[in-house]
Write a structure and sequence with these properties.
This is Light-independent protochlorophyllide reductase subunit N. It comes from Sphingomonas glacialis. Its cofactor is [4Fe-4S] cluster. The chain is of the alpha/beta class. Among the domains are: about 140 residues, Nitrogenase molybdenum iron protein domain (Rossmann fold); about 120 residues, 3-Layer(aba) Sandwich (Rossmann fold). Helix content is about 45%, strand content about 15%. Strands 1-12-11-10-13-14 form a six-stranded parallel sheet, with helices on both faces. A four-stranded parallel sheet has the order 3-2-4-5, sandwiched between helices. Strand 13, helix 15 and strand 14 form a beta-alpha-beta unit. Helix 7 runs parallel beside helix 9, helix 10 packs antiparallel against helix 11 and helix 11 packs parallel to helix 17. The longest helix is centred in the C-terminal third of the chain and has 26 residues. The radius of gyration is 22 Å and the shape is globular. The two termini are about 35 Å apart. The protein binds iron/sulfur cluster (SF4). Iron/sulfur cluster binds next to helix 2. Iron/sulfur cluster (SF4) binds next to helix 2.
Length: about 425
Amino acid sequence: MTALTLPASSDCAPAPRAVLRERGQREVFCGLTGIIWLHRKVQDAFFLVVGSRTCAHLLQSAAGVMVFAEPRFGTAIIEERDLAGMVDCNAELDRVVDRLLARRPDIKLLFLVGSCPSEVIKLDLSRAAQRLSLKHTGATRVLNYSGSGIETTFTEGEDACLAALVPELAETTRGAAPELMIVGALPDVVEDQFLRLFAQLGIPRVHSFPARRAGAMPPVGPNTRFLLAQPFLGETARALEDRGAVRLDALFPFGAEGTTAWLHAAAVAFGIDEMHFRAVIAPGRERAKRAIAHARDRLGGKSIFFLPDSQLELPLARFLAQELGMVPLEVGTPYLHRAHMARELALLPAETVISEGQDVDRQLDRVRAARPDLTVCGLGLANPLEAEGLTTKWAIELVFSPIHGFDQAGDLADLFARPLRRRDVLKV
Ligand code: SF4
């Protein structure tokens, strides 16, 4: 058995870390990408992108392997005549939505998702959503958010979507007992693992946000205590806090240590006995440690460079440094939420450069100078870097794979070990 180390509950704030801020050209997917996992999560929702053929191609190629008899996302394509102002876009949009909802009465929650073209022509999707919600009252709720590449990067689409849902949540009963909310779209299998653990711990009312169905979204209020499952939900957290909910500060649930700390934050908030907590989590924690151990030989001492992409970078670098002995040289993140990331930052080696935003050419110069053993980056940068002899990992895989919690910790470690294994095999 390995010793169980729990996070210190000290209030001493570590000295703020220096952050390299970059504001140049960036190479990141837009927020529309979030639809790929959100449409699988909320099963009676539909995501209607109001965009161009480029947006439709992005979604189709990113979700290309999945074929649905009744898909849960689509694109209302803005044509040239719309852009030229020759037609009434609002009337066209109403017509598309009416036709969609007449054909698909199973849609209970419709998101109008803004894109670059709808931003450019200043199509007011929030007014359209209000108008269409009134028209379809009782059958379908219509909301809107932006996934435009002008306004959002990659995972910010989920943040914008969930933030748009928060005002729709019912109010919890005044004076009711505290309830726990897990915030962030997780694969169902991972969500179920966490719900089982919280039940074993003895936390009685645990909700997931988003829920799997539109009608089952959790209530929120001052008795809500929430744990962020994803590190890219700054706007959602703020919207929940505006409704009186209280964020439980914790590491993110990656690896044995991150998952332990995340669960522990809830256990402390709900007054769970420490010995009981240790007994409940011990089997999962041990499984995670054993599963991680096999990757340690390959990853220990290896250097890694994260280009900014998904906002998962900081917690993943902490996991790799803390539990696998990797050496993060630079960890880039599109945005740095200092409060949500404080615990993660405190556990990263002091020598690691933290960068926020991107100036892709300068960052690539630093990658070339450092020649890390592994570079985590977007698809567009991976091939050129591989051609220069650098080993890369696609950041997008980390978003699409189940990586949270004890039972996924081994797979998470393996996602980083695999490119190095492949490199070694190719060298022989
Ligand atoms: S929203 Fe903008 S960046 Fe995203 S696919 Fe459409 S045009 Fe491209």
